[in-house]
Model the fold of this input.
Amino acid sequence: ETGVTQSPTHLIKTRGQQVTLRCSSQSGHNTVSWYQQALGQGPQFIFQYYREEENGRGNFPPRFSGLQFPNYSSELNVNALELDDSALYLCASSFPGMNTEAFFGQGTRLTVV
Amino acid sequence: ELKVEQNPLFLSMQEGKNYTIYCNYSTTSDRLYWYRQDPGKSLESLFVLLSNGAVKQEGRLMASLDTKARLSTLHITAAVHDLSATYSCAVGLQGRDDKIIFGKGTRLHILP
Done:
């Protein structure tokens, strides 16, 4: 158990819809990163939130957006869903520094039909 | 742009054998991670390597880091079926966004 929880665990959406995924970070961690893992691939960095602000972004379009709340929990929002958005979405919490270790939640499996 | 390459991507081996997974990365980094992932599950942290020459061992797994060669290895000793999983290396970039870049993962299947 990493102390990082994600909800929901599974989700089916229709193309064009919008989805919100949630992540509660490990106690004491003020940084949350989101990753997309397509089937058979390694996780791809979407973006990171640090103290409620976006702190870096990977190669994902603007329809992927996020929020971080004062308690450091986070949301990932995806608008105008496409079939290729089907993936396992992982969040990781960490505390910045040289010995940073990121702890991952169990993931949300999103299927777009 | 930082790239992380693992090889092999697929590995099928007999129980009791030894093998090594290699992870090469393209840019100077200050930390390297190894994760285990079971099918449909999340990532379990195995090792964090922070300095040149670092070696860490846990059970039948041993990881090492050569920052000059930009190479990390994960060595499996006397493999057992329970070690069947996908093993991913990831490289950290300390900077504004402190992000981690993953390799594609090595799918390891250990035959009884």
Notes: Chain B has a mean pLDDT of 91.
